[in-house]
Amino acid sequence: MPEPLDLEYDVAADDYQTAGEASNNLKETLKMLGLPSSVIRRAAIITYEAEMNLVIHGGGGRIIANIDEEKIEIKTIDKGPGIPDIALAVQEGYTTASDHAREMGFGAGMGLPNIKRNADTFEIETEVGKGTTLRTVIVFPPDTGKE
Ligand SMILES: Nc1ncnc2c1ncn2[C@@H]1O[C@H](COP(=O)(O)OP(=O)(O)OP(=O)(O)O)[C@@H](O)[C@H]1O
Ligand SMILES: [Mg+2]
């Protein structure tokens, strides 16, 4: 990584047609930057799951990725309903997904656990009725990021 880079994507609410575009774009950009494949894989999982949560639960929002020599920070910000119980939401299998979302194949309750598993740092700030901010960091493996 020659210099720090900031990427931002808007994600629309309840739009299953365009859902996944932002995370796909980000993944292609990370490939072009030549980041390690393990980092790209983890970032792609985090971004995809976080994007789908914006679509399904968050009322849409924004994905922000900041890349520097040593890490990538991926954040999502929404002004949706918030998460009343974070510990519960992070449990495998917990979901409040609508019937419609389930018909589209979502709602296994595996998104947040998957994000957590793939992140070195995992933080959720949320307020019911105000919105949710998810912050994750992936630290690059030691032999990279020095070019
Ligand atoms: N941005 C958000 N705003 C409000 N609630 C959220 C948000 N993200 C997650 N949640 C809540 O946390 C629960 C668990 O999220 P998680 O991503 O683990 O599962 P899911 O989205 O329900 O199903 P899956 O991700 O497997 O399709 C959701 O069902 C929802 O209640
Ligand atoms: Mg999810």
Structure commentary:
- The termini are close together.
- Strands 1-2-3-5-4 form a 5-stranded antiparallel β-sheet, covered by helices on one side.
- The protein has helices at residues 21-33, 37-56, 86-89, 99-103, 111-118, and strands spanning 5-11, 61-67, 71-78, 121-127, 131-139.
- The protein is globular, with a radius of gyration of 15 Å.
- The mean pLDDT is 95.
- It has 5 helices and 5 strands.
- The chain has one domain: Heat Shock Protein 90 (2-Layer Sandwich).
- By secondary structure, it is an alpha+beta fold.
- Strand 2 and strand 3 form a beta hairpin.
- The structure holds adenosine-5'-triphosphate and magnesium ion.
Number of strands: 5
Distance between the termini: 6 Å
**CATH homologous superfamily, by name?**
Histidine kinase-like ATPase, C-terminal domain
Number of domains: 1
Number of helices: 5
The portion of residues assigned to helices is: 25-40%
Model regions low in confidence, pLDDT < 50 over at least 5 residues: none
How would you sum up the global shape?
Answer: globular
CATH domain class: Alpha Beta
Order of helices and strands: EHHEEHHHEE
CATH topology: Heat Shock Protein 90
Mind sketching the topology for me?
Blueprint: E1 5-11, H1 21-33, H2 37-56, E2 61-67, E3 71-78, H3 86-89, H4 99-103, H5 111-118, E4 121-127, E5 131-139
Antiparallel strand pairs: 1-2, 2-3, 3-5, 4-5
Helix pairs in contact: 1-2, 2-5
